[in-house]
Amino acid sequence: MQQLPSHRHSPWHAGEKQLQEKAGVAERMEVIGQKVIRDYMPDQHREFYQQLPFMIAAAVDGSGQPWATLLEGEEGFVTSPDPRQLSFDLAAMALDPLDPATPGLGSGEAVGLLGIELHTRRRNRINGHILQASAQRLDITVEQSFGNCPQYIQLRQYRRVPERGVERIEASELDARSAEMIRSADTFFVASYVEHDDGRRSVDVSHRGGRAGFVRVEGNRLTIPDYAGNLFFNTLGNLRVNPRAGLLFVDFATGDVLQLAGRAEIILDSPLIKAFEGAERLWTFDVEQAVLRPAATSLRWAFEEYAPTSLMTGTWAETDARLREREQRNQWQRWRVQHQQQESTDIRSFVLAPEQGAAPHFAAGQHLPIRITTATGDTLLRTYSLSSAPSDGQLRISVKAQGVVSRYLHEQVQVGDLLDVRAPLGSFTLNSDTHRPLVLVGAGVGITPLLSMLREQVALGQGRRIHFFQGARTLADLPFQAELRELMQGADGLLQVHRALSAPEQDAVLGRDYEQRGRIGLAQIKAALSFDDYDFYLCGPAAFTQAIYDGLRDLNVADARIHAEAFGPSTLTRRTDGQSVTLVQPPAASGPVPVYFTNSAKEARWTPDAGSLLELAESRGLAPEFSCRGGSCGTCKTRLVSGQVHYPNPPAEMPEGDGVLICCAVPAEGEPLQLDL
């Protein structure tokens, strides 16, 4: 960073300003920078430096390569004779001649310093120049001084051992030992610098921390996430102007020191940024020189705990797993039927598991896409709600025998057979982050996602009261009765089951086999509940869910407390404060619109009577995947290349990003439409 003589001038150079502008904080940082960046050390900083056993330094060698290194000594080896000077007594522990940073620590050279105390998570920074350098002493004049926050600093206690190593292993690429040291690191330091127009040089050194595994190693390239910080962008601002950098890794258990020289590149836009938890941007580092000095420091640190901010971030192993799972969600896989069980007259459960790899994660309430090929060669796709809970350790669908695909599953599929399955989908999911009483209301096979939610809530054991409403025509049609009895026994009196039969058998006993005669409706729900602040989850035929929803809203139950999923092509019409919710979206096209299907190189002309984009694609011979045709399952989601769409009947959950649910979308007024089909 450039220190200018007047407080009226900016404390930031061009690279820092560019990144601050991209982050939308340029004006704010202009004010903050002039307040917190000083040309002297406050007394508390001076006192802090003077009790440190080591400091991190950055210097630039004769070829213009920056290096980061560790300067150490007995506590008190750093002193500050005045607020603008810092001195290092090196008599007891001289600079290591094997250290590649040593040639840059000469009189007149620019230097960056970081004082960091791992056992208190304190750190402060200095940029300056070397007034005097000798084997016995370094005197630094301060040009910029500022504090840093404790974020991402792992807590460690230190001790000292009698001897330091005297070996230097140099290479032009990373060997297995160095690569493993980087992969297991939770901390490293980075040196960078800029050259100013007047020929002056400003050198910087900073700390980077995260969970072990936050640095990716691919050959000689490292990829590093950049987390939320102070928005100064000192290091990345330098790299924006000058990509040359030096990295320092310390094995805190052995005292090994690994110093890397190379070039960095900042990545501001990449799918990896969203995939890596906590990352706001990425940067890469290409190793050109590696220097490993075994036991180069006499200090040893014992790990105590991660910084709370570090625990909120990811690792590359987790990121890669998340990306693989995301990729698998769009691919069909072979799953084997492990178990079958008849749950009622026309509902059968199937326990499924992937033929290869682990089962994907899912949320209670989601559904599983299934694809079959009929005897006539037709490929059909349907989605079936999962009736198992994430905590069950298995994936189970429960299917009612209605329609071609469900009857195929009932009549043809046996234990051991393989099915084409995609990873779970759906936004009708249980919110477990509340202790409000839970009301689950399902008609017929609509009970399956609610059973998943019920099983999960009982397994969580959060003390949440649950009312489970289940309806069917006869007792023989009422599924999961033995399972519900077991759940009631395990719920410690918190679960109440309300069963309604519209045409019970003569031997079905009211009060024993069911609680209400007739169909489930608002009257039965009102009779069972003393209305309070509940969370309602509704699932069943469209008319059923709409009627229950409307009745609850008429009783002033907040719209946000009612979650619903309807069968068939209809979606729920919601109301807020007695009015229909108006989705902010572009108006539907009123005339013909060209639609291009980029993947298949086909085009069509949509007109207002052409129906949905799914129907338009089918009319051109395309076969997009779909299931519900109502926007509730997400199976038909297609990437929008360009243009805009309108939803005449908006889905319950709008797709994220550039996804379009083509089963319920039409072109919007304006430009032609391009879809990735």
From TrEMBL:
Residues 591-677 form the 2Fe-2S ferredoxin-type domain. SUPFAM superfamilies: 2Fe-2S ferredoxin-like (SSF54292), Ferredoxin reductase-like, C-terminal NADP-linked domain (SSF52343), FMN-binding split barrel (SSF50475), Riboflavin synthase domain-like (SSF63380). CDD domains: fer2, flavohem_like_fad_nad_binding. Transmembrane segments: none annotated. Residues 1-11 have a biased composition (Basic residues). Residues 330-431 form the FAD-binding FR-type domain. Residues 14-23 have a biased composition (Basic and acidic residues). It holds the Pfam family NAD_binding_1. PROSITE patterns: 2FE2S_FER_1, 2FE2S_FER_2, FAD_FR. Residues 1-23 are annotated as: Disordered. One of its GO terms (molecular function) is 2 iron, 2 sulfur cluster binding. It comes from the Bacteria. This is FAD-binding oxidoreductase. It comes from Ectopseudomonas composti. The lineage of its organism: Bacteria, Pseudomonadati, Pseudomonadota, Gammaproteobacteria, Pseudomonadales.
